[in-house]
């Protein structure tokens, strides 16, 4: 059986940059050494072709 977990949280616009870095792995993680950068090409996004700027996208919406 498949399922999805959705988490909703109110955030300010200045929080978006950190979330963007985390979700799109734009920075080297100092706390999680288990991340295998060689497998990053296996990640995919159903909607966007590449990395997006979260602040710009929120402003568009």
Q: Biggest sheet, in brief?
A: none
Any idea what the shape is? globular
**Secondary-structure class:** mainly alpha
Q: Which radius of gyration do the C-alpha atoms yield?
A: 14 Å
Strand content: under 5%
Q: Give the beta-strand count.
A: 0
Mean pLDDT rating: 86
Q: Which ranges are low-confidence, i.e. pLDDT below 50, for 5 or more consecutive residues? A: none
- Helix-strand sequence: HH
Number of H/I helices: 2
Helix content: 10-25%
- Gap from first CA to last CA: 33 Å
Write the layout of secondary structure elements.
Elements lengths: L15 H8 L30 H7 L1
Explain this structure to me?
The chain has a domain at 11-27 and 43-61. It has helices spanning 16-23, 54-60. The protein has 61 residues and is an all-alpha fold.
Short description:
By secondary structure, the protein is mainly α. It is 25% helix and 0% strand. It has a domain at 11-27 and 43-61.
Keywords:
61 residues, 2 helices, mainly alpha
